[in-house]
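Entry for the shared binder. Reason: the reviewer on the internal report wants the predicted structure included alongside the sequence.
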Amino acid sequence: MKKGKKIAAIVLTSVLGFSLLSGCGSKDTVSAEAQFTKDKTLVVGIDNTYPPMEYVDKNGKTVGFDIEFAKAIGEKMGRKVEFVNSSWDAIFAGLDADKYDLVISSVGVNKDRQEQLALSNPYLANQQVIISSKSGKQIKSVEELAGKKVGVQVSTTSNDTCNYYLSKGIDFDLREYDGMTEAFVALEGGSVDCVVTDLVVGEYYVHKNTNKFVKTCDKLTNEPIAVAAKKSNQALIDKINPILEELSKDGTMTKISKKVFGKDLTQNIDTTLKGYDE
């Protein structure tokens, strides 16, 4: 989330647990003095179609959990934060091309991403869940996806999860949408029977639309959310991790989480990765 989200080839190796460390010894590693795309500015890539993590509100302002979180990081670093919007399927290519320093956009940690990106310690709990229409069929297991129309955001780990179960013989009609907003519009309108998405997104839509949506199946995967950088910018991730600890200890993370989700999803994060085939 995304979102847990899928990536092309960028690089990272990582150790499970609260410490996700990249490989060392790369000749491409950037020095601590050359970590940023702009002097005194932290440039952050986002996909602003993913409420409540990052989205454009009715006033045209980009808001959400990750926006406040990124600004808090910038404040601790003494740097202005600049956001660059990207479609999700292109966001990591932009990172690799140095269009921004970090992706702070609900990046779910999974084994593939541990091999492809430099990731921070997780800062938010997350998993893949099924959201059903309250007035429709309550889909309570992966097996019950059979014969249904299922909505996902394209190029996300939700998409990956659904494609995995399709490959295992559970036959359903997978509908891919460019943004999560479109997937939930489809669910509300009856174009799909359910949506597979990140817990953080599903909880938000259910909370905001208690008469329309309900979470009917959870923990298809476990994918805590982290800050992402390309491998050659591991020095920046090494600066981010102590800041995450500070933001947790001083209550900033809890405050943002309760404001956005109505609960604290930033403490006691389960960092044991669970994939769809485990």
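Summary line for the report: DSSP finds eight helices and 13 strands in the chain.
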